[in-house]
Specification:
Elements lengths: L1 E4 L5 H4 L13 E5 L3 H11 L6 H5 L3 H4 E4 L2 E10 L7 E9 L4 E5 L4 H12 L6 H35 L9 H42 L6 H56 L1 H10 L14 H23 L3
Helix pairs in contact: 5-6, 6-7, 6-8, 7-8, 9-10
């Protein structure tokens, strides 16, 4: 999909016009999953090359940060569907010149939609650099929102894991299931933190790069805003590191609690099996088919046998309790 800002009365699409010519009021062209025809149209009107998905997805710095004469080519991974558990990284390309900004993306991004709405409403966004700065700042804001939400989710999981009432123990199986759910939630949060870190890393690279170009058409106002973006990204990276450490801590803690729960179950089974051995021995002795067994002729033989079975179970149970094994 090809969107042109500001394309008054759809002039560009309706007018043939010579190649390489654009009205002065056009400051931004956005390409979403562009077709070959749309890419050829933009290239013929702007005299820039539109990168492919494969090129934008390359991770080396030379592919993400480049300048060709007076045209700046940038790419950064962005988090698509960041408000959902199905978030994923999708590359975004920026082609910045003095007269025009071209963005190339392959997934809907809420940050681009926000800036597009601002461009429609705010006439002060009158230059490509202003739109570029608005996109960077919005992407940083969105990254901060995602990190704050992930931090709140981790706090919720932490409370559920560590702040239960020890005076009201839960059923072991239900407790294990709750810990497994917490483990899955923490793992999912860790995956989304990784996506946010990659996106912030990309923004943290392109902002200093653009700042270092010292182009005359990048006004001091925008240089100051670029420096602010660099500082914001640095602070968000610190916060992301804190959340990553918390994810690792929660993973270790939950796995440890699951092991404790399982050990408790095995301990109960072990105690039951050990306590059951003496009564089994007593029952085996009196179950032997010998002709002469004095207890068989006693009037109190049956109660004596039951008492002996009960006593043989109570003595090891009391000893385990005295030792503090349960």
């Amino acid at each position: 999909m090809l969107t042109i800002y500001r394309n008054k009365d759809d002039f560009i699409r309706s007018s043939g016009g010579p190649s390489g010519s654009l009205p002065s009021h056009v400051i931004w062209i956005d390409l979403l999953n562009p077709t070959a025809e749309e890419k050829a149209f933009v290239e013929s009107r702007t005299n820039v090359r539109i990168p492919s998905l494969e090129l934008l997805s390359e991770i080396e710095a030379s592919s993400r940060l480049a300048i060709d004469h007076d045209t700046v080519y940038l790419s950064v991974p962005a988090v698509a569907q960041g408000d959902t558990p199905d978030a994923y990284l999708s590359p975004v390309g920026f082609i910045l010149t003095q007269r025009l900004l071209v963005t190339v993306r392959f997934a809907p991004l809420s940050s681009v939609d926000i800036v597009a709405e601002r461009v429609r409403r705010d006439e002060t966004l009158e230059s490509p650099v202003a739109v570029f700065m608005a996109l960077l700042e919005t992407m940083v804001d969105r990254g901060a929102d995602i990190l704050e939400r992930l931090g709140a989710e981790l706090d919720k999981v932490s409370r559920s894991v560590f702040r239960g009432d020890p005076a009201r123990p839960r059923h072991a199986m239900r407790s294990n299931n709750a810990l497994r759910r917490a483990l899955i939630a923490v793992g999912g949060t860790g995956d989304r933190l990784t996506l946010a870190r990659d996106a912030l890393l990309g923004i943290g690279r392109i902002a200093p790069f653009v700042l270092s170009l010292r182009k005359s058409w990048i006004l001091p106002e925008f240089e100051a805003r670029l420096e602010a973006v660099v500082k914001d990204v640095a602070s968000l990276n610190d916060y992301e590191s804190h959340l990553s450490n918390k994810v690792q801590f929660l993973l270790d803690a939950i796995l440890g609690l699951i092991n404790i729960q399982q050990n408790d179950i095995f301990k109960v089974l072990t105690i039951v099996s050990v306590v059951g051995i003496p009564p089994t021995l007593v029952a085996g002795i009196y179950g032997m088919n010998f002709k002469y067994m004095p207890e068989l002729n006693w009037v109190a033989g049956y109660p004596f046998g039951l008492a002996l079975v009960a006593l043989s179970a109570i003595i090891p149970l009391a000893w385990f309790k005295w030792r503090g094994w349960f």
